């Protein structure tokens, strides 16, 4: 069986060696797109980000991504220093500079900026935000369904670090991923504070039981845009869907499981904690949702 794979695994593309990166209003080659060691994002993980996907010349669900970015920035009291239209214009500028029309991924990052001294207080960030747009030619290449392992790292309460935030502080999820790989899996399945199945370290998580689609309540997971699109597609196409608490027992007995995210859309899960899910391959409900999602993106 293929060794570890990731949910963000893509085909090699030599064009990525020469991409231009948008950094605070300037387009720079990869080797020159650098930030200060005093930057808040580097020093403390103080920032927010969005991942975007380019299909047929258009950034998919761009309005929803902008909504989430500006809402997250407001939540952490970070002034992006650009209007929504200006951010979209910067994305378009970077896309045009790199000649991208399809199968591209963008990572848009905003940090609190360079600090005057190497300490935590946000007031030490006095130069304004650091804004970066990294684009890559990126076509998903996942050779088999993903293997998951349940990890001890949980998705916590909003008063610690709200899991709905797409923040630069991702250590909890990184540790979950490491734990899963140490267990021989590809990605970590994370529970919530009550022990119910929640999400993975990088994607939202769904199961299918007797034709019905289940996902978590959403209280402790990233408010995923692709997650919501899948829920909406189920409701619009008479596929029973439930946002509910459910356990690992329910999960192990599922007929299908899949992950959702901007990069991979819907990624099948074949195994969880050494237990085969269904026949270990992409199931019929997942296939149908993939087709419906593709149609939605095209529209």
Portion in beta strands? 25-35%
Described by strand count, sense and barrel closure, the largest sheet is: 9 strands, mixed
Helical percentage: 25-40%
From the helix content, strand content and strand pairing, which structural class follows? Answer: alpha+beta
Radius of gyration (CA) equals: 19 Å
Average pLDDT number: 96
Count of DSSP strands: 15
Distance between the termini: 37 Å
- Based on CA inertia axes, which overall geometry fits? globular
Note down, in words, how this protein is organized:
By secondary structure, the protein is α+β, with helices and mostly antiparallel strands. 27% of the residues lie in helices and 26% in strands. It is built from eight helices and 15 strands. Strands 7, 8, 9, 10, 11, 12, 13, 14 and 15 form a nine-stranded mixed sheet that branches. A six-stranded antiparallel sheet has the order 2-1-6-5-3-4. The longest helix is centred in the last third of the chain and has 15 residues, at 284-298. The relative contact order is 0.14.
Question: What attributes does this structure have?
Answer:
six-stranded antiparallel beta sheet; alpha+beta; 299 residues; globular
SSE layout and pairing:
Blueprint: E1 20-23, E2 26-29, H1 40-44, E3 47-55, E4 58-59, H2 62-75, H3 84-97, E5 104-111, E6 130-137, E7 146-150, H4 158-161, H5 171-182, E8 187-191, E9 197-200, E10 204-209, E11 212-215, H6 225-236, E12 241-243, H7 248-252, E13 256-261, E14 265-272, E15 275-276, H8 284-298
Parallel strand pairs: 7-8, 7-14, 11-12
Antiparallel strand pairs: 1-2, 1-6, 3-4, 3-5, 5-6, 8-9, 10-11, 10-13, 13-14, 14-15
